[in-house]
Design brief:
This protein is an alpha/beta fold and 465 residues long. It has two domains: 13-192, Cobalamin-binding domain (Rossmann fold, 3-Layer(aba) Sandwich); 217-461, tm_1862 like domain (pyruvate-formate lyase- activating enzyme, Alpha-Beta Horseshoe). It is 37% helix and 17% strand. It contains 17 helices and 18 strands. The protein has helices at 34-45, 61-64, 107-116, 133-146, 157-161, 163-169, 181-192, 235-238, 247-260, 281-290, 310-319, 333-338, 345-357, 378-391, 409-416, 431-434, 438-461, and strands at 13-18, 21-23, 49-54, 73-75, 79-81, 84-87, 100-103, 122-125, 152-154, 174-175, 218-220, 223-224, 243-244, 265-268, 296-303, 321-329, 365-371, 394-399. The strands form five sheets. It has a six-stranded parallel sheet with strand order 11-14-15-16-17-18. The protein has a five-stranded parallel sheet with strand order 3-1-8-9-10, sandwiched between helices. The longest helix is centred in the last third of the chain and has 24 residues, at 438-461. Bound molecules: cobalamin and iron/sulfur cluster (SF4).
């Protein structure tokens, strides 16, 4: 579908949409449609007018007006619960005895948002987890009803990891893979023409947060990609190279969020925030402290513990790091090799000690421990949990998600007898229900983790004798 107009100076409009999530559970942990905001910024830089509709807007009046348990709720620190509606479970998830939900603003509110804005010339939709494609397809269908003639393009993580599936199941006019800044502008030029704007370097853009309403936190990147290549991870498939942004540019962006957007909470979405610490994170944090930028930083993604020496721990504390989650993943040799040796047991222990000395109480330091990785024994998970507990970190268990294209995927498909062509089965909370015995085992491990965690917190709060 090509809709090139004749008027060269007419401003073309791009509408960017963050779609609904279909899942058994979803929690807003500083979730922002960061990729979509980069793409919107690129469109603006190229001379297009851009607007954004966020179906996951927790603070949307229609989401907070709902009565009952499915109302959106906001918790301190920029997190919260999405509003939701229970929907039918897809056939292949019938074995999972849980309610399936559509998370996001009520459908009528979305229709209203679509039809009350200016008519777009093209629409871009993002996608995140592969197993959330049902929400993407539903979003596309609603958009189609309102704008039957407007070209729709899909990008994002799911589009990149499962492009053929997306072409077949989502109903967009085009599916673009990989970083979308340049590709989306090319799509716009081709489909709707226009664009006299000067295009800035894609790696020099700032996400278009000014287009997002109801902002109670911000997510950002100080780097793109990851220098490692762990067997279960898709980072390299999403971005081939690892690039760290210039320190000054990163700190200016943080200052903009704090001083102009008045945000108190910033989450880093980096895959490898602490890589090359002397040249990157340390100077960033020193500059944040020097400029007196008062903000809470969150690292919901696992941090590389080996990089946290005494100085970095002190800088993190002084700069306002509030959520500190370290990747431990496992303590077994073969598993650590699959994780590219990015964390060693000594390194992990040292990091917790350094963070504690810098003033973090143990309840503030968390360790991601993986479970359900093909070939992983229950005893391995237990060992890792006990190790994290012993050195003073809270245990946060993370269920394995088989991701197409990763080194682990084929083994996972064989081990767990999965249909490789069905992304719904890649949901980390689905797998334990499909594999006989796995759910019970995981429940037991989760209970054990809770016991260890409460013991750690009690130990810390007990009065000294
Ligand atoms: C931040 C993050 C999280 C956060 C927040 C996400 C949330 N609240 O749901 C937290 C830590 C909570 C999280 C949790 C999990 N995550 Co996560 N997460 C990420 C991460 C690191 C960054 C995503 C991101 O925003 N990147 C930055 C933006 C700029 O990139 P982008 O979205 O890809 O956008 C670019 C392109 O895609 C494209 N694009 C994007 N939109 C559009 C739109 C158009 C129109 C176009 C043309 C282009 C385009 O252009 C953009 C700019 O270049 C990715 C890894 C990664 N490198 O992407 C994993 C990732 C998405 N997560 C993953 C996993 C496995 C998980 C967990 C299951 C881990 C676990 N075992 O518990 C959980 C599950 C959470 C859930 N709710 O289901 C997997 C994906 C799994 C899957 N099957 O899809 C990834 C890929 C990491 C991996 N291990 O490989 N995650
Ligand atoms: S270090 Fe983290 S982001 Fe990088 S490849 Fe390994 S798991 Fe993925």
């Amino acid at each position: 579908m090509s809709l090139c107009y004749d008027l060269p100076d007419m401003i073309r409009r791009a509408l960017l949409i963050a779609p609904y999530i279909h899942d058994f559970s979803a929690y807003d942990l500083w979730l922002k449609p960061l990729g979509l905001l980069y793409v919107a910024a690129a469109a603006e830089a190229a001379g297009y007018e851009a607007s954004v509709i966020n179906c996951l807007d927790r603070l949307h009046p229609a989401a907070t007006a709902i009565r009952g348990p499915n109302r959106a709720r906001t918790e301190p620190g920029g997190k919260g619960k999405f509003s939701y509606e229970t929907i039918a479970r897809p056939e292949c998830l019938k074995q999972v005895p849980r309610k399936f939900k559509r998370y996001g603003i009520p459908i009528e509110a979305f229709r209203h948002e679509l039809s009350s804005g200016t008519r777009p010339d093209a629409i871009g939709i993002t996608s995140m987890m592969t197993y959330w494609y049902g929400g993407v397809a539903e979003t596309v269908a609603i958009v189609r009803e309102v704008f039957p003639e407007t070209p729709i393009v899909l990008g994002g993580v799911y589009a990149t990891l499962c492009p053929e599936h997306a072409r077949e199941h989502v109903g967009a006019d085009a599916v673009l893979t990989g970083p979308g800044e340049k590709a989306f502008v090319e799509f716009l030029r081709h489909e709707v023409g226009g664009s006299n704007g000067s295009q800035t370097r894609p790696d020099n853009l700032r996400p278009a947060y000014h287009l997002l309403r109801n902002l109670d936190s911000v997510s950002m990147l100080t780097s793109y990609g990851c220098p490692y290549s762990c067997a279960y991870c898709a980072s390299r498939l999403l971005r081939r190279t690892f690039v760290q942004r210039p320190v000054g540019e990163v700190v200016d962006e943080i200052a903009y969020y704090v001083e102009q957007l008045r945000t108190d909470d910033i989450a880093f979405y980096d895959d490898a925030l602490l890589a090359n610490p002397e040249a990157h994170i340390k100077p960033i944090l020193r500059e944040v402290i020097r400029r007196g930028l008062n903000v809470r930083f969150h690292a919901p993604n696992g941090l590389h513990a080996n990089m946290i020496d005494c100085e970095l721990a002190l800088l993190m504390r002084a700069a306002g790091f509030a959520t500190v989650r370290l990747s431990l993943e496992s303590v077994t040799r073969e598993f650590l090799t699959d994780s590219c040796d990015k964390v060693t047991l000594e390194g992990f222990k040292g990091a917790v000690a350094n963070l504690s000395s810098a003033g973090y109480p143990p309840g503030a330091i968390e360790a991601y421990v993986m479970m359900g990785v093909p070939g992983q024994r229950l005893g391995d998970v237990e060992q890792a949990m006990h190790f994290a507990h012993k050195v003073g970190a809270l245990v946060r268990l993370a269920d394995f998600s088989p991701i197409p294209g990763t080194k682990c995927f084929d083994t996972a498909v064989q081990t767990y007898d999965l249909n490789p062509g069905e992304p719904l089965l890649q949901n980390s909370s689905v797998l334990p229900h499909l594999v006989p015995g796995m759910w019970g085992e995981h429940q037991r491990l989760k209970m054990r983790a809770r016991e260890l965690n409460s013991r750690l917190i009690r130990r810390e709060t007990a009065p000294m004798s």
